[in-house]
Amino acid sequence: MSATADSYLVLRAFVDELVRSGVRDAVTSPGSRSTPIVLSLVRDGRLRCHSHVDERAAAFFALGAAKATRRPVAVACTSGTAAAEYLPAVIEAHEAGVPLIVLTADRPPELRDTGAGQTIDQVKLYGSAVRWYVDLGIHEATPERLRWVRSLACRVAAAAAGAGASGRPGPVQVNVPLREPLVLDEPLPGDPLPGRPGGRPWLAFPTAGPASSGGTLATALAGHARPLIVAGRGEHDPQLPDALTLLAATAGAPLLADPLSGARRGDAAVAHYDALLRDPAFAAAHRPDLVIRVGDLPTSKPLRAFLAGLDADVPQLAFSPDAVWHDPAGTLHALLAGDPGASIVDAVHALGEDASRDRGWLEAWRRADAAAHRAIEATLGDGALNEPLVARALAAALPAEHVLVVASSMPVRDLETFAPVRDGGPRVLSNRGANGIDGTVATALGIAATGAPTTLLIGDVALAYDHSALLAVPRLGLEPALVVLDNGGGGIFDFLPVATQTDAYEAHVATPPGLELERVAALYGLAYAPVATVAELRDAVAGAGARLVHVRTDRAGNVALHRRVWEAVAAAIGG
Fold first, then answer.
1. Is the pLDDT of residue 321 over 60?
2. Residues with Cβ < 8 Å from 198, sequence gap 6 or more?
């Protein structure tokens, strides 16, 4: 049997075990050295294989698919700088806890450091941004070798899913050196070591959940009259939003929920905390005596400053199931052990229905939120579009089965500030691990490829950075709605002191991309829909087929509008 056949047998067993371990999607891009990997993925027959032209888009596409499905996704590339193109997505996956299996084809050892083309040092290429690095090596496909390969594939899938030492999902790099010939010109023999019967993985990992801290949580809540629950981005547990809603209602605790948490719902949710906490009088009068945090810290700077400014004797407790530290201000008193969802359910049972619990604390927040809601609606209007109104309208209109993908910079901030409390709203996803704008379009397309109706809210600069990812729309038959806020540059910078530096600001910071969006839509086969009102926006987003919804806004006017909103909210709550 040839060495090429050995490579294919090894890779066939490896891919078989990935599937047995729960992998359902794979993403590829073109190349020669990766031929055996790509063919092994495609020919398995059980994977949805998505083809991309370039590696950077492919990696973010895989990241989006993994976010949407909560499963590890394999992404495969050829050798050389192709593997380096994965780095931004690998970093985002590392920071956000997204499970990726990164398969990098490599030259064999004898071609390294010899001047061979398309050869770089790929060993531990991504440094500490991966949960695990492994070199698959080049060996004969003996039963002993295949037993190791099958076990290795199970370990790779488990490490990506968070079953490794870190306990946190994330990327794993599998480097695969391959020798020529890369195409098999003989029939591939039967498997020398078939997998275990019944489709079981070669190596099973325990699935028992961690211990609960429900008793500790219930005791803390029962002993404080002014508890506050803060919910940030959390993508792994679909049951957690309902658990948070139930806990807040049971404990009489205002629930300050970032839309990325999925928990901005129910009678205890407070939507407009960002605007409320900008008012010093409100912030001073509404200081809690206990803070419970779940998920990442929300994006809102006023909320972060509010939590950082609480007295040192106010306990701030946080769940950290993924061993991630989100405490830049050093205010946490303790970490709560165990699975947040299970712990919260246990805490609710322990608290029971306490009729004597004072609801005045929660009602004070809810009254202020209702006043802020009215002030925001009056200031934004409901006709001519502006950037906050676009975010608010999408959050209010999209149905529960939809996914709203939000770009970093202003879109994610506007959604946090202006999205209303709503039961049955869309799932909201964003790349907030490293908070970059790169790969935003590709991430949304990866989510759309899982079958979820997908709307992307993005600015013109982020679109310019990643519009080549739209090549996947006609190639893969995707039908996303891209809502593009076209304000002629990076609008978030207009809120910052750098905007006063008139000698360099426009060309070097705001950087207007100058894209003609109708031509962009035509280039990639998207329908083009310019909209100017809320009604037109809703109709365009509700339509069918891939479409680019064009919203023209003004950067300077957007800054002024935000300031009017904050002033109106302060006036409405008596600030």
1. no
2. none
Q: Tell me how far apart the alpha carbons of residues 380 and 361 are, in angstroms, rounded to a whole number.
A: 29
Q: Give the C-alpha separation, 275 to 278, whole Å.
A: 5
Dump strand ranges (E) for 194-331: 227-231, 255-257, 269-270, 290-294, 316-319
pLDDT at 119: 85
Start-to-end Cα distance in the chain: 81
Q: How confident is the model at residue 110 (pLDDT cuts 50, 70, 90)?
A: confident
Q: Mind listing the pLDDT tens digit for each residue in 405-443? A: 999 989 999 999 999 999 999 999 999 999 999 999 999
3-state secondary structure 478-524: CCCEEEEEECCCCHHHHHCHHHHCCCCHHHHHHCCCCCCHHHHHHHC
Q: What is the pTM of this model?
A: 0.94
Please report, as a single letter, which amino acid is at residue 342: A
For 374-388, the pLDDT digits (tens) are 999 999 998 899 999
Asked if 174 and 125 count as a contact pair (C-beta separation under 8 A), the reply is no
DSSP state of 199: G
Distance CA 343, CA 359 (A): 23
Classify 297 as helix, strand or coil.
coil
Helices (H), 21-142: 35-44, 55-69, 81-84, 87-96
Whole-number Å distance between alpha carbons of 448 and 125:
29
Compute the distance between CA of residue 161 and CA of residue 167 in angstroms, rounded to an integer. 8
More confident residue, 236 or 58: 58
Answer whether 159's CB lies under 8 Å from 172's CB: yes
Residues 59 and 89 sit within 8 Å (Cβ to Cβ)? yes
- Name residue, tokens 């379009």: 441
φ and ψ of 107, to 5 deg: -70, 155
As beta bridge partners, residue 26 has: 49, 74
153 with 14: CB under 8 angstroms?
A: yes
Tokens describing residue 450: 């899982």
Sign of the CA dihedral running 184, 190, 196, 199? positive
The SS3 of residue 257 is: strand
Say if CB 471 and CB 93 are below 8 A apart: no
Which amino acid is it at 297?
Answer: L
Residues ≥6 apart with Cβ < 8 Å to 44:
12, 15, 16, 19
3-state SS, residue 104:
strand
Which pLDDT score is estimated for 72? Answer: 98
The C-alpha atoms of residue 445 and residue 472 are separated, in whole angstroms, by 8
Percentage above 70 pLDDT, the chain: 97
